[in-house]
Amino acid sequence: MSNTPTVLLQHLQHWSKELGFQELGVSDVDLTQAEQRLHIWLARQYHGQMDYMARHGDKRSRPAELLPGTLRVISLRINYLTATREDLWSQLQDAEHGYISIYAQGRDYHKVLRQRLKQLAMRLEQAIGSYQWRVFVDSAPVLEKPLAEKAGLGWIGKNTNLIHPRAGSFFFLGEIYTDLPLPITEQRHSDHCGRCQACLPSCPTQAFVAPYLLDARRCISYLTIEYKGIIPENLRPLIGNRIYGCDDCQLVCPWNRFASRSVEVDFQARAPWKNTRLLDLWAWSEADFLRHTEGSAIRRVGYLCWLRNLAIALGNAPKSDTIRLALNARLDFPSDLLQEHVRWALARHE
User: Subunit structure of this entry (predicted)?
Assistant: First the structure.
């Protein structure tokens, strides 16, 4: 096959479609503006307890410091929406069931995407011989959204998600860092949020400080997944029945009326998440939790914080003697963190 950079890009785009990706783009490694925004965000402590955001220094915004020799970043997106927005709103309104962010209901996307990115990189290696490459899926210091924006996969909206005008924002991103001088794809999607601000007031905990600026310390996704401590009492009622992540700012985004349903088997809701009745999940032992979350992104939250999140959701559920008894049964759990949230939930039912 021809080894010209343009032909290589065409082959990559074709092969990526065969692997299930919806789009592929290529960017250079200049993230000067994104780096400045990151420094401001970190200086304001909006990253909360995600110390790794600051610890990695400029590796996040300077790809060649993470992988020396990097000239280009190949960005790809793949849809993960497996339910209608109406169904998701219905789940949020059912206070006796827990809401789990749609992206986490299938197989751990890190594993799915990493495997496919490696297949794509190795397929190119088979065609042209050895070259430098490394794949990333939301697990290393990578500014994936600014890179994808530069590669032409969308624009970063006011809710800080990457938005595509024909696909919305319900998609995963993955990257391949490489030393190949591939052609840079056009950054063809300017910001189309316009005057719309539907996402900003939709946030239950008002985590948006301003358009395009999120304070993670108030974000439900951060609080229920990344944060391992006692959730501030004033935020607990606002979390509602969200026990792992939050989709509200995406659900109200008008561009997501164009979001396509995913046909990926790996992203379909797994058996445990087809019944998220809070009392059933609350009854799980740690062994149950580990068994049901095997191969799932949800396992990373850990059993203790899983119970913490459930305690808050139970506290926000309609008053019930059954719930009160179930909460009482956990009062002797050997954790001050959990006991704090159980006592709060009990007070809501008295």
Answer: Monomer.
User: Does the annotation flag 162 for ligand binding?
Assistant: yes
Digit-coded pLDDT (tens) for 256-314:
999 999 999 999 999 999 899 999 999 999 999 999 999 999 999 999 999 999 999 99
Residue 322's contacts (CB-CB under 8 Å, 6 or more residues apart) are: 279
* Measured CA distances, 215 to 156, 174, 272, 305 (Å): 16, 24, 31, 21
Q: Which residues does the annotation mark as catalytic?
A: 138
Q: Residue 19, annotated ligand binder? A: no
Distance CA 24, CA 125 (A): 17
Q: Which residues contact 215 (CB under 8 A, 6 or more apart)?
A: 44, 46, 207, 208, 209
Question: What's the whole-model pTM score?
Answer: 0.96
Residue 274, annotated ligand binder?
A: no
138, 110 contact by CB (below 8 A)? yes
H or E element, residue 100: strand 99-100
Residue among 125, 148, 150 at smallest CA distance from 137: 148
What is the bridge-based pairing of β-strands 99-100 and 242-244? parallel
Q: Is 221 annotated as a binding residue?
A: yes
